[in-house]
Amino acid sequence: MGLIRFLIITICSLYIIRSLVRIFLPMLFGSIINKAQEQARQQQNYQQQPRPDGRVRVDYKPETKSSVPDNEGEFVDYEEIK
């Protein structure tokens, strides 16, 4: 009797969970899709803003460093021997 009761409760639980997933999963994906679309619209609006002509703006200028420090030595010419 206990096995039959367990099977009935399990089958009913799985059926209820399956029904709830069919209802709530599309709602969840719909909200995620709406958020992604809104972000795409905002990004598109940001890119379409007019920029002033002829003006250059530099946000970051990296330091230029020599690949070999001055105290590392001298370059020596060599000849290739065949």
Automatic annotation (TrEMBL):
Keyword set includes Lipoprotein: no
Regions crossing the membrane: 6-25
Keyword Transmembrane helix: yes
Biased composition (Basic and acidic residues): 52-64
UniProt biased composition (Acidic residues): 71-82
Span list, region Disordered: 40-82
Comp. bias (Low complexity): 40-49
Keyword terms of this UniProt record: Membrane, Transmembrane, Transmembrane helix
InterPro entries in alphabetical order: DUF4834
Protein name: DUF4834 family protein
Organism: Mucilaginibacter lutimaris
